[in-house]
Amino acid sequence: MDQQIQFPDIAEKLNKVRIARALVLLPPLQKHLFHLIPFLVHHNSVKYPGYSASNTPCGINEYIVDERESQACDVFSLPFMTEEADVNAFEGVYAMGSTGSFGQNNKSDVDVWLIHRADLCAEDLALIRVKTNRLTAWFAEYQFEVNFYLVHPQQFCGDQAIHGCQSSMAHEHSGSAQHWLLLEEFYRSQIRLAGKTIAWWPDAKLNPALLSLGDVHELPASEYFGASLWQLYKGLDKPHKALIKVLLLEAYASDYPHSSLLCDRLWQRSLAGDFSILNDAYYSIYEIIEAYLLKQNDTRRLEIVRRCFYLKCGVYLSRVQEGKDWRYAQLKQLVQDWQWPDSLIATLDDCEHWHSGQLNWFNDQLNELLLASYQTLLRFASTHALNEGLRIEELGMLTRKLHTYFSQDEDQIAKLNLLWSASVAESEVTMVSSSRVREYYLYRQGPQPQNLLGESAICKGKAPSTLMIWACLNGVSTPETKWHEFGQSKAKSRRLTEASKRLLNFIGHDWRVSKLDLCKPWHFRKLIFMLNLDCDPTIEWLGQEMMVDVMNANVFSLGRKKANMLGALDAICLNSWGEWQCHRFEGDTAVLQALAFVTPGLRRANLPVDIDVISCSQKLRPQLKLAVKTLLRQTVRLCQQVQQSSTLVQPLQIRHTRYGIFFNPLGMAYQDLSDAKSFYQQLSRSHLVQLPRPELGDDPFSSMPKVVQNYAAKGTIQYFLRQRTDNLDVFILDEENQLSHYVQAGSNMDELVNKVSHHYVFDEHYASRAQFNIPQFFHLVRVMGELTVAPFGMDITDQDTEF
Q1: What is the C-alpha to C-alpha distance for residues 602 and 599, in angstroms, rounded to an integer?
Q2: In this structure, are residues 608 and 616 in contact, taking their beta carbons and an 8 Å threshold?
Q3: Which residues contact 546 (CB under 8 A, 6 or more apart)?
Q4: Where is the Adenylate cyclase class-I N-terminal domain (predicted)?
Q5: Would you state the pLDDT for residue 172?
Q6: Taking residues 238-242, what's their average pLDDT?
Q7: Beta bridge mates, 441
Q8: In angstroms, what CA-CA distances link 160 with 200, 202, 222, 733?
Q9: With contact defined as beta carbons under 8 Å apart, do 529 and 614 qualify?
Q10: Are the C-beta atoms of residues 795 and 514 closer than 8 Å to each other?
């Protein structure tokens, strides 16, 4: 007798066990919602949530409703229908991921694969997506997160595995970043909610009653790189989950090409009749990682993984009053084997109340280990070409997003991942300055010495403004938080507290980042100038503020002494890539330095930049704010107004010196114009007027430098490509905006982009430092006689999607 005949029954037994375990872990209302998932996919009626059109495809093969769906309909006052669809649109509906496993907790979402018929057209799929989006919103009303994924039945088979079937990359869709590894995760964790049984066992024979999506044992080495990038990206939100998954990839890679896949391990146990809690998809991940790290003698990473696994399960062993589900005994045995003290378990169980210091420490550990695993997988993948299925535009978006998070730029404001913590707000914070290294440290205690003794700083920076914007952005500082500076007066503390409250008023907007944003040079969205926060010349000024208003005096050159009332300026910026930064400018030319710095980011903005000025000085507060805001508005107007062949000049007196502010297509520069000779020299200096042009000969695209100038952004490598008949024009702006041009003979655009991307991905210099600053690629095309720039590979219908 063919043993494979028994396999569907074995698979169904495991499926029932998983459903039972999932339901035990769900609260009563969500149990009913869980039963409604296939029911609402199967039916399409105006009487049901998700309905959008009468012709939306519906119906699931072999789906039979029962008493559970009837009860669920009663709970939500929905009519109970048993009619069959004329034509079934879906082969099956399956939950996958942590549902029904050790990893399911009270905050877990349910990921649902809708495997549709192969012959559904694009219009049909669009209608289904509208319905599933509405269903997701309806489930969310009951605090139940359900994400739907449309899956083509041949998505993982043959040529279809590479072309045309993947969803485009989005926050919950890995797009082309992973393929076989995604299928392996589905095989090891899937729960059939309705439809055909998945033939997920090794060497499964074709059977019309079963659904086979492909053979996961075809896993190529090149996919590990894309999958590790995707897990790093997911780790921006949930690093504890991502660390477990990326370490599983590392364990797989260590045995490549003879990797023992987890789905095979689970099947062999099922085949042997083991349906115990040890034959669990998530628990088995931990077992594989533990064995791998013990083999490596890597106890440090193993300890962090154990904490991540424990926190992911959401079983609180120290809370004796809570119910004990089917995982309790095994987890209790595990922590005993790990020799965890009760104090550690209590700390982990109290994760919802972790303060910013605890979160900082844990986030730092997770980020360090994530990057270490990434580099290990990068070295493994470097001997192979980039996965041909990984779309270069998606590679660019992923690396750009990771660069914004893992950047080593000291001016960038780090994001504090709250993980499980409900709030990190503090009633008091204290800044301590170090004159030796000229750094500032922030503590979550009051300014009394006994409070600070033995405590660790929660943030450090080179200016008080850096600490303040970090605390405000990350929820540490609220309108009720009192600020102190150690060893300073109460008046100084009051000024800091007031400044933080005013700053909070300007940063509450929820800014989204689209795919197109990440594929284009950054520009400013928000700009806040903070004046005299910690360096305030107005304290020593003895004049009358009213006279300054009456005489319309210049606060940068005030009175007989020509005193400059601006001692320091902090530019707090949010750019279109979602990065917050804080830049410090000091001295007499602080305002000019700041304007020169922000002008390029203002010039590239297509929409008005949200601009605010916060004056923190003791005196002349409104006068300073007005003067700087007026200069800032003039800068915005002039940098947008300047023409390619002209330079606009704006004079400004600072103390005893008269400066000229020059605006041209490259940005802004300033110079001492105290004498006419200097003024004439500056107007005649060509480098202030235009970017040096590359040698173009008789090329009709001689306006190329103007187009390049409009996209130039420091800190980013940019390639501008124009396909000719026999060769490729390549213009490159490096990280310092130096322009070079060459012609690549016998090459097409796709080949060059792949080659250059591969170089930057696997180059030892970048890989060793875990840099993700892969070049941006642009396609130069002429439209209606004008030379235009388009991000390489970007689908115009998908460019506004949030990412």
Answers
A1: 5
A2: no
A3: none
A4: 9-201
A5: 65
A6: 94
A7: 432, 460
A8: 19, 21, 18, 37
A9: yes
A10: no
**What is the rounded distance in angstroms from the CA atom of residue 100 to the CA atom of residue 191?**
8
The Cα–Cα gap between 104 and 500 comes to 40
Confidence band for 686, pLDDT divided at 50, 70 and 90: very low
Query: Rounded to whole angstroms, how far apart are CA atoms 269 and 404?
Result: 43
> 232 vs 108, 173, 736, CA distance in Å?
19, 14, 28
Residue 596 and residue 667 in contact, taking contact as beta carbons nearer than 8 Å: yes
Element (H, E) at 94: strand 90-96
Strand partners, 727: 745
Q: What is the DSSP letter of 165?
A: -
**Pick from 241, 483, 505, 515: which is nearest to 401 by CA?**
515
Hey, is 582 helix, strand or coil?
strand
What's the CA gap between 64 and 759, in Å, rounded?
A: 54
Residue 484 to residue 492: CA distance in whole angstroms = 8
Going from the C-alpha of 118 to that of each of 24, 94, 363, 494, the distances in angstroms are 35, 17, 43, 67
Coil, helix or strand at residue 312: helix
- For residues 193-217, give the mean pLDDT: 91
DSSP sequence for 673-731: -SSHHHHHHHHH-GGGT-PPPP--TT-S-TTHHHHHHHH--TT--EEEEEE-SSEEEEE
| Exposure b/e, 85-107, CB count within 10 A at least 16 = b | beebbbbbbbbbbbbbbbbbeee
Give the pLDDT confidence of 16-52 residue by residue, as tens digits.
999 999 999 999 999 999 999 999 999 999 999 999 9
Q: How many CA atoms lie within 13 A of 372 on its CB side?
A: 12
- Residue 225 confidence (pLDDT) above 80: yes
- CB neighbours of 617 closer than 8 A, spacing ≥ 6? 531, 532, 536, 538, 539, 565, 624
Output the CA torsion 474→475→480→485 (10° steps). Answer: -30
Q: Which of 89, 95, 77 is nearest to 44 (CA)?
A: 89
Q: Which residues make Cβ contacts (< 8 Å) with residue 475, sequence separation at least 6?
A: 416, 418, 423, 424, 425
Give Dmax (Cα) for the chain: 106
Instruction: Tell me the Ramachandran region of residue 487: left when phi exceeds 0, alpha when psi lies from -120 to 50, beta otherwise.
Output: left
Q: Are 253 and 376 in contact (CB under 8 A)?
A: yes
User: CA torsion sign, 56 to 62 to 65 to 69?
Assistant: negative
Tokens (6 digits) for 706: 């103007």
Strands 667-672 and 648-654: what pairing?
unpaired
Q: How many Å apart are CA 777 and CA 391, to the nearest integer?
A: 13
Instruction: Compute the average pLDDT of residues 569-589.
Output: 95
Q: Radius of gyration of the chain from Cα atoms?
A: 30
Structure tokens at 35: 């039963």
Distance CA 79, CA 57 (A): 20
Residue 649 has pLDDT above 50, yes or no: yes
Q: Which residue has the tokens 């990065």?
A: 579
pLDDT per position as a tens digit, 243-278: 999 999 999 999 888 888 999 999 999 999 999 999
**DSSP secondary-structure letter at 81?**
-
Q: Cβ neighbours of residue 13 under 8 Å, at least 6 residues apart? A: 270, 275
Q: Are 168 and 84 in contact (CB under 8 A)?
A: no
Taking 3-state DSSP, the helix, strand and coil percentages for the chain, each rounded to the nearest 5, stand at: 40, 15, 40
Task: In whole angstroms, give the CA distance from residue 169 to residue 793.
Answer: 13
Look up the pTM and report it: 0.89
